[in-house]
Amino acid sequence: MTPRLLPLAVLAAAALAGCASQTTRPENLPEGSRAQVAILETTDVHANVLSYDYYKQREDRSLGYERTATLIRQARTQFPDSFLFDSGDTIQGSVLADYQAQVKPIGCNEELGIYRAMDVMGYDGGTAGNHEFNYGLGFLSQVSGTPMNVEGGRADRCAGPHFPLVLSNVFSARDGAPIFKPWTVVQKDISVTAPDGTRRRVSLKVGIIGFTPPPILEWDKQNLAGKVTVTGVVEAAQKYLPELEAQHPDLVVAILHGGLNTAPYTSDMENGGWYLAGLPGIDVLLLGHSHTEFPGPHYKGMAEVDAERGFVRGKPAVMGGFFGKDLGVIDLALQRKDGRWVIDAGQTHSEVRPICPAKNDCVPADPAIAPVVAQAHEAAMAYVNTPIGTTRVRMSSYFADVGNMTALAPINAAMRDYVQRELPRQHPELASLPVLSAAAAFRTGFGGPDDYTDVAAGPLTLRSAADLYFYPNTLAAVQVDGTGLKAWLEKSAERFNRIDPAKDGEQSLINDHYPGFNFDQIQGELSYEIDVSKPAGQRIVKLRYKGKPVSPQQRFIVATNNYRASGGGNFPGLDGSNIVLSAPDGAREILARWLQHQQTIDAKDLPSSSWRFAPLKTRGDVVFKGASGKQDVAHDAGLKGIRQLSDSGDGSAVYAIDLSH
To answer: β-strands 340-343, 326-337: how paired?
Structure first.
């Protein structure tokens, strides 16, 4: 492997600092000595190395690691003493990532594009998120440069990032050993100011320990079942913190690919950060996974959480944004007390720094990043432009939340067709059961006004399929009865707030705490209504198959993806036990082949919309947010009673929907 090369700016800063101070052994520091150290964090970059939208084939300055790199350099100028860590979900999530993993997999001696970009900036450590496992353990073992004694893992050491990856709660089923180092210690000289004002250099030892969400065993069951075991994050911390503390680090930083949840702790808790923060021995907490910045208003009012200054149960914490949109920064004030470093909470705070502080006001891209992925980027662009057919139907997710299923219909048609062909071969005893298909719109504006799927009428390319199906899930099919089918739809309908028809004033339709990728819409000669005036769990009415009411005992096969079938999203009855078909094929590839087979997509080739809102007359407006100026998309899709109320000036708008239609 190539030895790690630190950026010249970092080396220069260290040299200058060294010239201006004397070197001191830590134990000789006088009481009251102080230091300022920044902990910098990236998370959920999802291989968005460049500020580029592969689906729209144009620059997108609102995201991209190449701009986060600019923030890193700025922060290092402000804080000469700093550590840089990554909290996971790094290697998957972009066309570039899929190209290097699935289309033209990189070789053992070739470093993954996102890691090459990160190496330019000189990281001090990182952990693995749940999406690190999407391409399988063999690929993860290879690109992380980590030999793994697991089924499908690599025994040799391939080219990986030039910084340590730590993970304490995933173990090989073969020997019980952790698949990554559970912890390590990184060390740097920092500048210290003594009480008399003199400055000196001293070594600071920072221990890092990593954690991934325990539900990976459900979410990536096809890749992980029987190969690894997983423990809860608290249990892993309790197991390995004594080992780490035995190394006498000055600080311990927990790098968690997870967020904050104050519900009673369980060993399979997805977002266990609140409980990790409560453990003695952890000094600083780096968060991720939730795609929600901390500190920030989303966490206001949470017990023992300072959502303004960035503390969780008294520990400084930060969660940067996703897709390279932000940099997490903890300004850590240290004071020497009783022969050790302690954090001065009053002088410490966290913040999330965006690459775009305002619309059209984004920091420039760091010029050192693009060249290291240029060749792979060009190849990925050429690949996604491979022609596969044409469409006469605009397939859009702008109004997927309110009934426009054009972006979901081709997915459901392709997955249903696949299951109808494959199921009789593998399970002839189930061949007579009706087959339905469930899909959710992955891009519904969460990432901003450009975060929608929009495939225009005209030529189709592989880029179109990647736009329609954003994630590299595989297809799975489950068997459910009528009761389970209704429960599935009831869970999906939590996407909506309860609407009071007698209330004056505006009411927001969309429940922002329920992600769009969990709003499954099921098609296949099925019809139903969603009554948003009713409480969650009681909203699905007029549920019919081929025009007849669905009975509780009626059996169905539902095509979905491996994430949902294995328990992703916590849908009732979906825990992997009722899977009847696990396809080796990716849902995106199945969709691309279906589009190619159709050649030309007309409205008649797509299943009709399966649901509508139950008619509801309200006194005030029912509103939702969307991309500005798209009212014609709703009209062309046959949606009635939708009008734009206001333009927010940032590409988004507020719409009203008349539910009485």
So the answer is: antiparallel
Q: Which fold has domain 38-377?
A: Purple Acid Phosphatase; chain A, domain 2 (3.60.21)
Quote the tokens at residue 503. Answer: 């209330």
Distance, in Å, from the CA atom of 276 to the CA atom of 257, rounded to the nearest integer, reads 12
DSSP string across 46-99: TT--SSEETTTTEE-TT--HHHHHHHHHHHHHH-SSEEEEE-S--S-SSHHHHI
Compute the distance between CA of residue 48 and CA of residue 44 in angstroms, rounded to an integer. Answer: 9
Residue where the block lists tokens 């780490």? 244
> Three-state DSSP class for 265?
coil
Q: CB-based contacts of 184: which residues, under 8 Å, 6+ apart? A: 125, 164, 166, 207, 208
Residue length, the chain?
661
As annotated, the residues of the chain forming the CATH 3.60.21.10 domain(s) are: 38-377
Look at the block and give the residue holding tokens 């990160």: 118
- Residue ranges matching CATH 3.90.780.10 in the chain: 385-611
CA dist 494 and 498 (Å) reads: 9
292 neighbors 298 (Cβ within 8 angstroms):
yes
User: Measured between alpha carbons, how far is 53 from 154 in angstroms, rounded to an integer?
Assistant: 33
Residue 417: what residue type? D
Q: What angle do CA 321, 328, 242 make, to 5 degrees?
A: 110
Between strands 521-523 and 579-586, the pairing is: unpaired
Please report how the helices 370-384 and 113-121 are oriented relative to each other, as an axis angle in degrees rounded to 10: 160
Residue whose C-alpha is closest to residue 167's, from 236, 264, 249: 236
- pLDDT at residue number 183: 98
| Interhelix angle 409-426/587-598, nearest 10 degrees | 100
Rounded distance between C-alpha atoms, residue 488 and residue 486, angstroms: 5
CA distances from 457 to 397, 454, 460 (A): 14, 10, 8
Query: How far is Cα of residue 526 from the mean position of the Cα atoms in its chain?
Result: 31
Pure H helices in 455-508: 462-468, 482-492
Residue 108: predicted pLDDT:
97
Nearest to 633 by CA among 394, 467, 441: 394
Token pair for residue 563?
């994430």
10-residue averages of pLDDT along the chain (661 residues): 38 40 76 97 96 88 96 98 98 92 95 98 98 96 98 96 98 98 98 95 97 91 93 98 98 97 95 97 96 90 97 98 94 96 98 93 97 97 91 96 96 96 90 97 91 95 90 87 98 98 96 95 97 98 98 98 89 91 81 93 94 96 96 92 93 96 81
Helix (H) or strand (E) holding 384: helix 370-384
Are the C-beta atoms of residues 580 and 478 closer than 8 Å to each other? yes
CA-to-CA distance for 509 and 656, rounded, in angstroms? Answer: 9
What would the two tokens of residue 431 be?
């061949």
How far, in Å, CA of 491 to CA of 570, rounded?
Answer: 9
What's the confidence (pLDDT) of residue 624?
A: 97
CATH of domain 385-611: 3.90.780.10
Q: Say which residue the tokens 């009732």 belong to.
A: 572
Work out the widest C-alpha separation in the chain, in whole angstroms: 85
Residues 46, 94 contacting (CB under 8 angstroms): yes
What is the CB-side half-sphere exposure of residue 140 using CA atoms within 13 A?
Answer: 27
Count CA within 13 A, CB hemisphere, residue 3: 2
Distance of alpha carbon 139 from alpha carbon 481, whole angstroms: 37
